[in-house]
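To whoever is on call:

I kicked off a structure prediction for a single chain this morning and the downstream step that reads the tokens threw a length-mismatch warning. I double-checked the sequence; it's 166 residues and nothing unusual in it as far as I can see. Pasting both halves so you can look.
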Amino acid sequence: MNPSAATANPLEQLRDIHLPDTPGLWPLAPGWWLLIILSVTSIAAITLFIIRYRTKNRYRKLANQEADQLMQELKNSSCEQSEKRYFEQAMALLKRTSLHRYPSEKMAAVSANHYLELLNQHCKKPVFSEQVCEQIAESIYKPQSQPNIDIQHFHQMMKTWIKSHR
């Protein structure tokens, strides 16, 4: 043996530590795949829920807009029969809205006062009072009569029903 090799530091004969390559982005670990699948599924479910909710309640928004348009036409009209026409159109709007929401029920053939009572049954608490039901029924079917109902109050009741029926 070489005497110089025996006296040399044995640590100098060791090689440097060889580090492994850093892991790449691909292929992904199973936990990442699970997270991606859950995220995509959640986003799709939330989007579908929002689309269905908006589509399902779109008729309410349109009915509210039409109710506001009826009130605006009443305010702009100077005709003496405009109030009676407003109530006729408002009742038609309520009937269209209820038939859209409850197509299987026989609501179209019911008289006005019973019809408003039926509408009350589809709310948590009644919106239309019995007095208003009777007054509207009387005023719609009498020729040349002016309704003696507070129009603003009826308008608010109609909008409340459109907004809150089940």
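Update from on-call: the warning came from a stale cache, not from the record. Cleared it. Sanity check on the structure: Residues 109 and 136 are 16 Å apart (CA to CA).
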